[in-house]
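step 3/5: co-fold with calcium ion
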Amino acid sequence: MRILLAEDDPSIAEGICGSLRHGGHAVDHVSSGNLADAALRDHSYDLLVLDLGLPALDGSEVLRRLRSRGAGLPVLVVTARDGLPERIRVLDLGADDYLVKPFALSEFEARVRALLRRASSNGMPELQVGRLRLDLPGHRAWVDSTPLELTAREFGLLEALALRAERVTSRAQLIEALCDWDQDLTDNGLDIAIHRLRRKLQGSGTGVRTIRGLGYLLEEAGESGTDPA
Ligand code: CA
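step 4/5: write tokens
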């Protein structure tokens, strides 16, 4: 999943980025409200983690603009501002959840898992494609009852494809889902990740088919098998 973090406190940002990346997510970090606003216009994210007290543009205004554009991505507000009126105001502006600093990273991670679970699969924490089963918040996958050993990148790739099963996913969409600004994924890198994922899916009855000129399709392997390239 690709997450935008808008937080101007460097040590809090570092902790949150580390925790999210450790969980296998791609994280873009910005430290001002206007940069957050620009990033939300230019990129597509699965979750926004938003500090309210941001320089240049207040977090509340970032949120108000986001919702006025009709964007439905989940928003987790993290802020030092406490008090009932403030919480109600932020939830009414369109936040999905609210965490008051200081908070335990374990609680932050649980709330992120809950928001992503709701957003990615309409409340279903698991996805099934043929004999392949994915536990999205847990980052685990099985073929029947046998666990698949996947790296964080391979799981991200499989997840991006599985969320669009039966539909073609373009290379740009895959790169968008897998990459944050700090770690470039080249065309070659994507090819390698797809190659490795295909090898690990061998014998699973599910494969990644190349749709020339368009992208990739995760599907139950038919009579024709899957593209070995
Ligand atoms: Ca702040």
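step 5/5: annotate
The domain at 2-120 is CATH 3.40.50.2300 (Rossmann fold).
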